[in-house]
Amino acid sequence: MRRPPLIVFLAMLFYVLDAQAQSTAPSNVYVFPLFVDGAAGGFSYRSTLRIVKTSATNPMQCTLTQRNTSAPFIGVDGTVYSADVLDAGYSPPAVTPITLDQFLPWEILRTNAQSSLKTGYARLACPGTVEAELHLSESDGQNNKLSESTMTPARQGTSFQFLFDRRDGTRLGFAFANDSAAAGQFAIIARDRFNYEVDRAYETIEPWSQVSRFVDQMLALPADFAGSIELIGLSAGQNYAIGLQFTGTVFTTILPVVRAAPLPN
Predict the structure, then answer these.
(1) Is 243 in contact with 255 (CB distance < 8 Å)?
(2) Would you give the DSSP letter of residue 157?
(3) Which residues, 6 or more positions from 131, have their beta carbon under 8 angstroms from its beta carbon?
(4) By the 8 A CB rule, do 254 and 162 touch?
(5) Can you spell out the DSSP letters for 117-156?
(6) Facing residues of 151 across strands?
(7) Which of 16, 74, 76, 80 could form a disulfide with 210 if both were Cys (CB 3.0 to 4.6 A apart)?
(8) pLDDT profile of the chain (265 residues), mean per 10
(9) Whether the Cβ atoms of residue 38 and residue 118 lie closer than 8 Å to each other
(10) DSSP symbol at 78
(11) Would you call 95 helix, strand, or coil by DSSP?
């Protein structure tokens, strides 16, 4: 069976999320810059949210908001959680309420990959503290799991630095989410092991949106490159980023070093 090209998978494996404004904003927000659900080329891709209540708030009403996707979930006991699209327009929010209490202090919500592949990002907002993680997986047509990785909530920042060694054929991709009403250019910069700049590129990102790329789509890097990749977000935006490293068809998520300001030139 022919597998979909990596570049198609990565391009489809990203886009963005934001929570709807509320009169009383929750005090705990957890952003996942990468969310995926659906099938393409005989393969299926799922997102699984694991959430545990860690505060005394009881019951706790959390809200999961997807952008650019509207995937429903199945809970651990078979409960169906819908994702209701609240308005129209560009990347409208799809909202899923999640209630945690003394009878169900944790939940595992899994998408079903029954529709065509869509990607986005997601935000979980709760009035109390929780522990949350998002699990991404790829399966073949017989539902055999081929690859998987777990993502913790992303840290907001301006600079996101990834260490990258492509001497073994590894490819590095990234998902960059702009969770704000600001728009503008972001930068991506490659530096070698002596911290000398190798190449840089710029691209525009829209409000409440996300950009995903392979690094080698934007930058000209030598085959033996080993160094760092810095992504610089919008100064007026709410920036989040995650890396995705491919070795052949196997992938894993890569956490960046997050800073409030860009690295010095």
Answers:
(1) yes
(2) B
(3) 51, 52, 54
(4) yes
(5) -EEEEEEEEESS-EEEEEEEEEE-TT--EEEEEEEPPPPP
(6) 134
(7) 16
(8) 47 36 56 93 93 93 92 95 84 92 95 89 94 94 90 95 94 91 93 96 88 92 96 93 87 93 91
(9) yes
(10) S
(11) strand
Q: What pLDDT does residue 9 have?
A: 45
Among residues 213, 43, 45, 31, the alpha carbon closest in space to that of 122 is found at 31
Considering the four listed CATH numbers 3.30.230, 2.60.40, 1.10.3680, 2.60.290, the one that applies to the domain covering 159-259 is 2.60.290
The token duo for 186 is 């972001």
**Per-residue pLDDT, 68:** 84
pLDDT at 54: 96
Q: Is it true that 6-151 and 159-259 share their CATH fold?
A: no
pTM (two decimals): 0.84
Per-domain boundaries in the chain = 6-151, 159-259
CA distance 209 to 212: 10
Token look-up 């890569």 returns 254
Q: Which residues contact 169 (CB under 8 A, 6 or more apart)?
A: 247, 248
Other Cβ atoms within 10 Å of 137 Cβ, number: 19
Specify the pLDDT at position 7: 44
Which residues lie across from 239 on neighbouring strands?
Answer: 157, 178
Q: Which residues lie below 8 Å from residue 142, measured CB to CB, with a gap of 6+?
A: none
Burial label for 247, CB within 10 Å (0-12, 13-18, 19+), is: exposed
CATH class of 6-151: mainly beta
Outline where the chain has alpha helix (H).
6-12, 215-218
